[in-house]
Amino acid sequence: MLKTFLIGIKDLRLIFRDRAALIFMLLAPFLLTLGMGLVTGRFSGNSSGISDIPVVIVNQDDGELATALVDLFNSEDLAELVEPSPGTSPEAARQQVDEDEVAAAIIIPAGFTRSIIPQQEGFTNGNQPEVVKIEMYANPSRPTSAGIIKSILDEYMSRIEEGSVSAQTAIVQMLVSGRISPQDAQTAGEEMAQSLGDTQGGESLAITLNTSTADGEEVEFDILAYLAPGMALMFLMYTVSYGGRSILAEKVQGTLPRLLVSPTNATQILGGKVFGIFLTGVAQMLILIGGTSLLFQLKWGDTLGVVMLVLVAVFGATGWGMLITALARTTAQVGSVGSAIMLIFGILGGSFIQLDQMPAYIQTLSRITPNSWALDGFTTLALGGTLADLSTPVTALLTMGSLLFVASVLLFGKKNLVQK
Amino acid sequence: MSNILEVQHLVKNYGDFQAVKGISFSIEEGEIFSLLGPNGAGKTTTISMLSTLYAPTSGDATIAGHSVSKEPMEVRNAIGVVPQDLALYEDLSARENLIFWGQMYGLSGSSLKNRVEEVLAQIGLVDKAKDRVKTYSGGMKRRVNIGVGLLHKPKLLFMDEPTVGIDPQSRRAILDTVKDLNKQGMTVLYTTHYMEEAEELSNRVGIIDHGELIAIGTQKELTRQVGETETLVLHIGENEDPEALVTAFKGIKGVLEANAINHEISIITHSAADVMAPVVTKANERGIKIHSIDIREPNLEAVFLHLTGRALRD
Ligand SMILES: Nc1ncnc2c1ncn2[C@@H]1O[C@H](COP(=O)(O)OP(=O)(O)OP(=O)(O)O)[C@@H](O)[C@H]1O
Ligand SMILES: [Mg+2]
User: Fold this and answer.
1) Which one is the CATH code of B228-297: 3.30.70.980, 3.10.290.10, 3.20.20.70, 3.40.50.300?
2) pLDDT per position as a tens digit, A4-22
3) Which of B85, B88, B104 faces A262 most closely, judged by CB atoms?
4) Exposure winner among A64, A148, A388, B268, fewest CB in 10 A?
């Protein structure tokens, strides 16, 4: 146990002396966060956070539900967040998106309201008119902004569906009176749509957007709260593959055989190497979190939640690092496979592109990455969630890590990594 | 004196290839025993089995009474290993390396600290102890590599060609260290392909070739096997081709063996006086200038030549 710890500490010390590794572990994610922050305008203009998202709304319907939606976008609650403008025709609106003037166009086709609330009473069974769908045309170069608009829209639609089961007039009133709030919209948004929206009802969520919490603190959605963990998690994959590579490197450089002829058993040695990878990953994440908090005034959210999430995310990622190492024969293989996995997981896990813009099968596939689960968790925390809201990502990451560890140990055993 | 190491019919196969072919020998407590053999003889493979790194294909060995295959942990506590290839963390300093390896041998606290400083003094690296190993010269790295093997004061120290590829000064220092350690009571198993090192250091020598122990004994016992011979050593110019000359020398009556290493030709004979004249004549016939001629008593090189028909270093 002590030796396992000492080997881990030794590895932590070694990686922090490797300049190339430090560049990848710390500098690269930091600079990429900064760069993407600049591109998305995080550092320009007023305060922090996203505000005044330009959106064009084309209302061809003029029924109650369409009016309610337009009113919602123009409501006091959303005044800071969105900047709606009326559009004349769908074509013109789409062009505004194509020319990057707005983050999204919302097109409400004629007959939308009637397709949901039929005009005549008793006109119910069997003869429901086909639902006319609202179109949202999103700007791919503003993924986060578009994602927020979509989440508001999604929330609105889900309220209508809920409502249409019960009293229909009540919904309209609720909508008009502004009871559909952006905080609810946010809950349905982006990453968390499936993981949180499915398990919990809209109102019971602790997540809020641009709203006051009980003690009056402002909680804002900050684009960096998405970018920074995305980048950190991507380069966490670098760290774990570096760590895995070091197992094979020690074999080549003779220190592994030397350990094996000392009174240290193979389990202690392998345990020490894994512990070293884990420690390094945790150190990397905490430094990046600390650094972005200080330099970008980024609020990562509930400390306990952040620490817990870091621990399980690194655990899950370490599992991948071990699996890569167990499958590879040379350090070079670990290096190249590691880099490939880092990029693939980065993309799949949502570090670059929001997942809700991807096809469903990619969203499903993304669940094999620690990145996507952890990113869910970090978004939840950044929006005001706490440890209690993290049960899904935490469970997923713990399960992922455990399965990968078992698989790697079996593979290591087969390959006789440590004994000749 | 009791035997600290006993090797019984040790065999190691790498796939179809048998690297060690059933060797047996023992080492007494307090001696320096050298395994002398050319490249690929099986020295490192033997050390690897004795140090519990590789499991023997068959046979066994006991160290301080413990079987290397059945009680590896006890064996590891009793031995120190200085591997042939450097096995250090280049990004750690000498001191940090020693501390880490000391911890792996179960040292801690002030006894670890004191021992590390002692070893640093012993290997002469106190001044440079803070520098990272990667900034060291080859000789300094070798010394750290040795230092790691000494930390826990092992009863038996394995040193696998510890002087390969370093400058004469460092080599001298290492040989002196080995003798010091032995004086302090450490038993040493030393492998080398330098005859001079085996001659200088060891009480007893085992000659290993192609995985077989072909001779074992004190230097005297071994040279006696060669019989009453002498070795004539000729130094010739750098630009001369020794091979043709060697062939010519082999034809001289009374020459048992002739062999060239660089610009040194060794001739084994029963009587140096008898072959001297024809040797010089053959050289003159080819216009090759002889810089000097030494006559040597039989040495381990001659033993090896006698037993295998080859030179130790080719
Ligand atoms: N892992 C291995 N797999 C296959 N063959 C090996 C392996 N290690 C060594 N050998 C072979 O076994 C033989 C003995 O090798 P070994 O390293 O024990 O020799 P050595 O006496 O230490 O040589 P050197 O003086 O070059 O260090 C050589 O022919 C070598 O090629
Ligand atoms: Mg060797």
Assistant:
1) 3.30.70.980
2) 999 999 999 999 999 888 9
3) B104
4) A388
**B87 interaction partners in chain A (CB closer than 8 Å):** 253-255, 257-258
Sequence spans of domains, chain B: 3-222, 228-297
- Residue A177 banded pLDDT, cuts 50, 70, 90: very low
Query: Which atom of ligand 1 lies at the shortest distance from residue B37's CA?
Result: 21
Which residue has a Cα nearest atom 31 of ligand 1? B40
What is the C-alpha separation between A236 and A319, in angstroms, rounded?
A: 12
For the record, the structure tokens of B103 come out as 């911890």
Locate the domains of chain A by residue range: 2-41+220-415, 53-208
Nearest ligand for residue B160 CA: 2
Asked whether the predicted pLDDT for residue B265 surpasses 50, the reply is yes
At B152-199, the pLDDT tens digits run 999 999 999 999 888 888 899 999 999 999 999 999 999 999 988 999
pTM, rounded to two decimals: 0.73
Which residues are near ligand 1 (CB < 6 Å)? B 14, 17, 19, 37, 39-45, 84, 161, 193
B-chain residues near A14 (CB < 8 A): 89, 91-92
Instruction: Determine the pLDDT at residue A131.
Output: 66
- Name which of A134, A138, A130, A127 is nearest A154 in CA terms: A134
Interface test with B, best of A1, A7, A247, A258 (most B CBs within 10 A): A258
Report helix, strand or coil for A105.
strand
- Mean residue pLDDT of chain A comes to 77
CA–CA distance from B93 to each of A261, B11, B134, B141, B303 (Å)?
A: 22, 38, 8, 11, 43
Sign of the C-alpha dihedral computed for residues A295, A298, A300 and A304 taken in this order: positive
The residue nearest atom 4 of ligand 1, judged by CA position, is B14
A53-208 to CATH, choices 2.30.110, 3.40.50, 3.40.1710, 3.40.1000: 3.40.1710
Q: Report pLDDT digits (tens) over A192-213.
A: 233 323 333 333 222 223 333 3
* ipTM score for this prediction: 0.85
Q: What are phi and psi of B12, to 5 degrees?
A: -135, 125
Q: Which of B44, B89, B135, B157 to mutate to test the interface with A (most CBs of A within 10 A)?
A: B89
**Residues contacting residue A214 through CB under 8 Å, at least 6 positions apart:** none
CATH classification number, B3-222, choose in 1.10.10.10, 3.40.50.300, 3.40.50.2000, 3.30.160.100? 3.40.50.300
Pocket test for ligand 1, best of B39, B45, B189 (most atoms within 8 A of CB): B45
